[in-house]
Structures are given as structure tokens and as C-alpha cells.
Amino acid sequence: MARDDDTRNFALREDSGDESSVFSGRTPRQAALKAARRLTPAPSEDDAETMELRLREKGTKKVHIYEGWAWEETAPDDSPDWMPEEITEANVSKQGIEHLEEL
After folding, report:
1. Which residues, other chains included, contact 101 with Cβ-Cβ below 8 Å and sequence gap of 6+?
2. What angle do CA 64, 18, 26 make, to 5 degrees?
3. What is this structure's pTM?
4. Which residue among 8, 19, 29, 103 is least crowded, i.e. fewest CB within 10 A of its CB?
5. What are the residue ranges of helices labelled H in the chain?
6. Rounded Cα distance, 60 and 46, in Å
7. How big, in percent rounded to 5, are the helix, strand and coil portions of the chain?
8. Phi/psi of residue 26, each to 5°?
9. For residue 66, how many C-alpha atoms fall within 13 Å in the half-sphere facing its CB?
């Protein structure tokens, strides 16, 4: 699958400053949703606990800060055969932007 020119890369930052994973998306929110789907899912959205996600836009010193949570949900009735019965859904809420002084 070819990448669009407007796709940007965002590195997931740990508390220590290490960048463990890279997520791509046209917007920071799109990358944050991809990162949130990797969280351990709760049984339902009401039971989900939020976790802070810090995504640094590659090539910049901007860190986008999100609260993310994930939960399990039953796959839709018209889902393809290869899709599992339980799927992970996620949501994020933007908390702000931080500018790093150094990388």
C-alpha cells in the first residue's frame, strides 16, 4: 500500500523519553487512536481506564498529549470470516501540546 504525501509519523514517548513505537496518520489524533488500540482493553467502555499517550511528531519538537482508553466489543454481524468475535475499540481525548527544548 503506497503512502500519501501528507502522512506524518508520530513517535510514542515513554516517561523516560524513549520512543518505543511509531504510528502514522494524517493527523495526530489518527495516530493516537492507533496507539490507543494497543492498550490492554477493558471489558466495556465504562470500565476502561485512561492512559496518557505522548506522541512526538517526527521532525519537530512538538509533543501531542492525549488521554486514551480501549475496550472490547463484539464484532458486527456483517464482519468478514477472518475477523475475531471480539474486537478492540479505542477513543482519545486531546489534553494539549508540549514543545521540547531538546531532543
Report:
1. 61
2. 35
3. 0.87
4. 103
5. 28-36
6. 35
7. 10, 45, 40
8. -75, -30
9. 23
